[in-house]
């Protein structure tokens, strides 16, 4: 198969792991910097170019779209889909996962466990918003944040009001969420491939930090997940239409709750912690389903 990895940097661990895994299985692999692409929007003849080179003949693409370039990256993925190329994660599904509010609404509609979450625009609703999520301490998130950036733990009501006021002063869209104290600064990253959890790790935040992201100094270890956690992770990925996803769970007193679903999960941390070759599993998924899925067939609605 001829497979393109849409990534800005071939040297990134995840991109290189997928590239090498594909080569080992005999595929024609290529890394394409999607930001440098341009598209020709023509009736019945959609095409995509990298400089003067027309990109065609691909059987599948693996999107590794950075949060900064979500809009343009999804347009590139969508153009490949219009050309009949199978995408591991389709453009609609990537867009859903990157919109925190939209993804939470879709998950809530299907009964997935979530922290109590509030969203408002009018500054006069700040008090009600804080009360809605159980008061302080609470977590305040930028809708556009990623890898722990734009996530603040407000330990007092006054701190929460100040943070919300500051974010609104920047015309930023924010969410307020219940703080799951019993999680103890740890979350569980479940890696879903083709509707199955193929690996899971526990990420523990460093001392004095509540965010468990490995980029923030968190540590990773193997963890055994419960059947309920496994089911929650696979259902969350399926609801958003993602074939490959990193689903972040917290263990709360009322069961697992989903914090976020990542459409371009990093592979280094979870491969190192578990010793599993996730990149190979993704390539195997493409082999089984890539040629059969032409065009866009994203599950669900919204």
Give a nutshell description of this structure.
This protein has nine helices and 16 strands.
Structural class: alpha+beta
Q: CATH homologous superfamily of the largest domain - what is it?
A: ATP-grasp fold, B domain
Count of alpha and pi helical runs: 9
Highest-level CATH class of the largest domain: Alpha Beta
Low-confidence spans = none
Q: Using only CA atoms, what is the Rg? A: 20 Å
Secondary-structure topology with pairs:
Elements: E1 2-6, H1 13-24, E2 28-32, E3 37-40, E4 47-50, E5 53-54, E6 60-63, H2 70-82, E7 86-87, H3 91-98, H4 100-109, E8 117-118, H5 126-132, E9 138-142, E10 151-154, H6 157-169, E11 174-178, E12 186-193, E13 196-204, E14 219-222, H7 227-240, E15 244-252, E16 255-262, H8 268-274, H9 278-289
Parallel strand pairs: 1-2, 1-6, 6-7
Antiparallel strand pairs: 3-4, 4-5, 8-11, 9-10, 9-11, 12-13, 12-15, 13-14, 15-16
Verbal overview:
The model has no long low-confidence stretch (mean pLDDT 90). The protein is built from nine helices and 16 strands. It has a five-stranded antiparallel beta sheet with strand order 14-13-12-15-16, with helices on both faces. A four-stranded parallel beta sheet has the order 2-1-6-7, with helices on both faces. Helices cover 32% and strands 26% of the residues. It folds into three domains: 2-89, Rossmann fold, CATH 3.40.50; 97-112 and 182-263, D-amino Acid Aminotransferase, Chain A, domain 1 (2-Layer Sandwich), CATH 3.30.470; 117-179, Dna Ligase, domain 1, CATH 3.30.1490. Helix 2 (70-82) packs antiparallel against helix 3. It is globular and about 55 Å long. The two termini are 32 Å apart. The longest helix is centred in the last third of the chain and has 14 residues, at 227-240. The chain has 302 residues and is of the alpha+beta class. It has helices at residues 13-24, 70-82, 91-98, 100-109, 126-132, 157-169, 227-240, 268-274, 278-289, and strands at 2-6, 28-32, 37-40, 47-50, 53-54, 60-63, 86-87, 117-118, 138-142, 151-154, 174-178, 186-193, 196-204, 219-222, 244-252, 255-262.
